[in-house]
Amino acid sequence: PALFMDNARKGSIVSRANSIGSTSASSVPNTDDEDSDYHQEPYKESYKDRRRRAHTQAEQKRRDAIKKGYDDLQAIVPTCEQQDFSIGSQKLSKAIVLQKTIDYIQFLHKEKKKQEEEVSTLRKDVMALKIMKVNYEQIVKAHQDNPNEGKDQVSDEVKFNVFQGIMDSLFQSFNASISVTSFQELSACVFRWIEEHCKPQTLQDVVIGVLHQVKSQLY
């Protein structure tokens, strides 16, 4: 009986110890889970920080690229370098830089079109000069083949003197016969002058008189 009581007492003590241990274990938090969460949380924050930092760097690069683009435009476009009195010493805004750039591009397009038209005109002139050169070479060659040809031809100076004499004679009669008081009177005088001073016989007499005058000057 004493041995039985001793064993029973020991079993009771062990049972109470197990229950106490179970109770205390259940009351204590799971340290393994906490250690796992404690180690994972800094990793998540670090990953977010890296993403945030990468995004910030990309945004800064984008802003730097835009700023460099506007700086390049201000350096290239001449009108952006000119100081606007309404703005003073203030820095040009992006809107003003863009507008001045657009205006300058339109100006360049107009200048390009103008230069293309000038080039086209010059090409036509060059083509005309080439044709004149070919004709002149043919005339020179023909003159070299027949050196005596054209000696009896009338010079350009004589032709001009004849033309000038005829025009002077007609102008004198026109100035003496025409009245410019009104348009109706002018019209009537012009028709009357044509009928009187531009008849074939009258013009023939004028030309003959001029030819005699030029001939007397030459000889």
TrEMBL record:
Residue ranges of every copy of the BHLH domain listed in the record: 50-108
Keyword DNA-binding assigned: yes
Keywords assigned by UniProt, alphabetized: Activator, Coiled coil, Cytoplasm, DNA-binding, Nucleus, Phosphoprotein, Repressor, Transcription, Transcription regulation
Segments of skewed composition (Basic and acidic residues): 37-48, 56-65
Record field: compositional bias (Polar residues): 15-30
Sections of the chain in a coiled coil: 105-132
UniProt name for this protein: Max-like protein X
Source lineage: Eukaryota, Metazoa, Chordata, Craniata, Vertebrata
